[in-house]
Amino acid sequence: MSDRSEILFISDLHLDQQHPQVIENFLNFMQTRAIKARVLYILGDLFEVWLGDDDSAPYFQPVFEALKNFSLNGKLFFMHGNRDFLIGSQLANALKCSLLTDPTVIQLGNHQVALMHGDLLCTDDVDYQNFRSLVRDEQWQRDFLSKPLAQRRSIATGLREKSHQAMQDKHYEIMDVNLTTVANTMRDLDVDILIHGHTHRPGIHPVATHKTRYVLGDWHPEPSYLSWSNNQFQLKDPRVSA
Ligand code: LP5
Ligand code: MN
Predict the structure, then answer these.
(1) How far is the CA of 84 from the centre of ligand 1 (A)?
(2) Structure confidence at residue 3 (pLDDT)
(3) Residue 2: pLDDT band by 50, 70, 90 thresholds?
(4) Is 62 part of a structural domain of the chain?
(5) How many domains does the chain have?
(6) How far apart are CA 56 and CA 203, in angstroms?
(7) Residue owning the nearest CA to atom 39 of ligand 1
(8) What's the 153 CA to ligand 1 centre distance in angstroms?
(9) Mutation to probe ligand 1, out of 163, 199, 216, 220 (largest number of atoms < 8 A from CB)
(10) Atom of ligand 1 minimally distant from the CA of 159
(11) Are residues 54 and 149 in contact, defined by beta-carbon separation less than 8 angstroms?
């Protein structure tokens, strides 16, 4: 049973113009599910690609309206993913959402909970981590954002092709989280719960004794979310049995 004390976690919707059904699913989720929640955490990759807050992205207007609407009665948090790390304060302010650093630790009941997008945990993917360090650099971002939108768009298209090619050559395991990194991160943050997305491999994994890692799924083709209600976590994903 859900009530206004419920907290929801989602990530990896990868919304884009080419997949109107996913946008539709998200709007439906906001109207029927999130409306009952007190807090919504979006842990990255809400958008397939975000090139800067100066992109008015008219096809996302209904998405923005739904998020603004949620913010009227609920609290909205957003953490950057590897595809929408250029979401800035302009969009965050417009949506009345707070931007979270990765990782962020919160308390839920008796649990200490770390929230991450998940890409930082993929430490075997050295090429990606090097690339990440480059594009998360403030100066690099200022330079990139000072380019005309059309140029940013074509750079991003080139990058996606390179990334797609690089991923063909990477082993499946390399693109998952490194379990030692997971264990060390949870120990260093002193948490017993870790919630992340990014890998598109939804699941619930024990980590050492009494620690749990919840992996959020992507939204292609169906919604995936984690809820915290009545002192319990529940992962709702068509690929994970309850
Ligand atoms: O998200 P997913 O699952 O597809 O892949 C990620 C990693 N890839 C990326 C790149 C994005 O997919 C590309 C789209 C991002 C748009 C961002 C908009 C901002 C524009 C920035 C423009 C430069 O994140 C992929 C991981 C995978 O997850 C699993 O974890 O493996 O990583 C890669 O494939 C990266 C390659 O290993 C290295 C790419 C080298 C490209 C070097 C060009 C650098 C040029 C900089 C720009 C001028
Ligand atoms: Mn991601």
Answers:
(1) 11
(2) 56
(3) very low
(4) yes
(5) 1
(6) 35
(7) 163
(8) 14
(9) 163
(10) 13
(11) yes
- Residue 1 pLDDT > 50, yes or no? no
H helices present in the chain, as ranges: 20-32, 61-73, 89-95, 126-135, 138-145, 149-168, 179-189
CATH number of the domain encompassing residue 48: 3.60.21.10
Evaluate if residue 242 carries a pLDDT over 90.
no
> Which class for 189: exposed (0-12), middle (13-18), buried (19 or more C-beta within 10 A)?
middle
Is 242 inside a domain boundary? no
* Atom 33 in ligand 1: residue holding the nearest Cα: 163
Structural domain boundaries enclosing 180: 6-236
Closest-approaching ligand to the CA atom of 45 = 2
Please work out whether the CB of residue 159 comes within 6 Å of at least one atom of ligand 1: yes
Residue among 50, 132, 143, 159 to mutate when testing ligand 1 (max atoms within 8 A of CB): 159
DSSP string computed for 44-75: S-SBS----TT---GGGHHHHHHHHHHHHHSE
Nearest-angstrom CA–CA distance, 19 and 97: 24
Look at residue 77 and tell me if it is in a domain. Answer: yes
- Tell me whether residue 29 is in a domain: yes
